[in-house]
Write a sequence for this structure.
């Protein structure tokens, strides 16, 4: 009997789920994140930067508008088509490829890279380490990598888990989460409703403490140089909504 594909291959395939991702982040959030990336990476104009995974390219496109050269990687065909279309219409220096985020065949090609939007910890421990090693391999010496994740244990375990409804224009999303202490996994279920249509999906994320993440980065060859608990550079602490971990390839 054939095994089911992993959740991260099926979650983003649904039309409603893809549409929810297009609507989730307001433009001002994208601009704030791009500001943070510019201020932290301090890239030279035209610098090659990798966005892994990139979704519909919201951050890649914003950074390309600011004069950088972006390469985005994602598995979702529909979202990549959005990104390619926008880059072509605007004449931006941004390209997008459909591939696994652990499959990055460009050794030493990028000045910098980033992974935003809770896109880390999709895999088991070995797969997550493979992702960090892949990012390390595409950076030039001295290249910087920034990981943003709300799935650090210090973020997750300070929450009160409950059912939440979100309104995205005429679309509604029901999000429910539970934590498995025995595995350290976060199980999220989503129900999306729009005009009588409904999609349900589940995601399984592996959580890590800040200390464990730092160790994983070091094992992948990175030097961790900074960490923040907000886009305004507050210190990361228990209860921070997200972690921004800044690392360098020596």
């Amino acid at each position: 009997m054939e095994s089911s594909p992993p959740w991260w291959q099926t979650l983003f395939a649904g039309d409603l789920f893809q549409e929810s991702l297009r609507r989730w982040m307001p433009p001002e959030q994208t601009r704030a994140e791009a500001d943070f990336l510019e201020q932290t990476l301090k890239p030279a104009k035209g610098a090659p930067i990798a966005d892994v995974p990139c979704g519909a390219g919201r951050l890649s496109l914003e950074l390309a508008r600011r004069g950088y050269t972006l390469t985005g990687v994602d598995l979702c065909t529909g979202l990549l088509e959005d990104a390619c279309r926008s880059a072509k219409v605007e004449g931006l220096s941004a390209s997008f490829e459909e591939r696994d985020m652990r499959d990055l065949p460009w050794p030493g090609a990028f000045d910098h890279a980033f992974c935003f939007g809770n896109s880390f910890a999709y895999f088991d421990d070995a797969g997550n380490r493979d992702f960090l090693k892949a990012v390390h391999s595409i950076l030039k010496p001295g290249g910087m990598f920034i990981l943003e994740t709300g799935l650090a244990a210090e973020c997750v375990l300070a929450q009160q888990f409950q059912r939440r409804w979100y309104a995205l224009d005429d679309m509604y999303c029901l999000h429910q989460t539970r934590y498995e202490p025995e595995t350290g996994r976060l199980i999220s279920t989503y129900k999306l409703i729009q005009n009588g249509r409904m999609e349900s999906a589940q995601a399984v994320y592996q959580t890590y403490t800040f200390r464990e993440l730092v160790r994983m980065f070091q094992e992948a060859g990175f030097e961790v140089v900074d960490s923040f608990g907000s886009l305004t550079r507050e210190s990361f602490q228990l209860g921070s909504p997200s972690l921004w971990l800044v690392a360098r390839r020596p």
Notes: The chain has two domains: 7-150+208-248, 156-203. The domain at 7-150+208-248 is CATH 3.40.50.150 (Rossmann fold). The two ends are 46 Å apart (CA to CA). The longest strand covers residues 139-149.
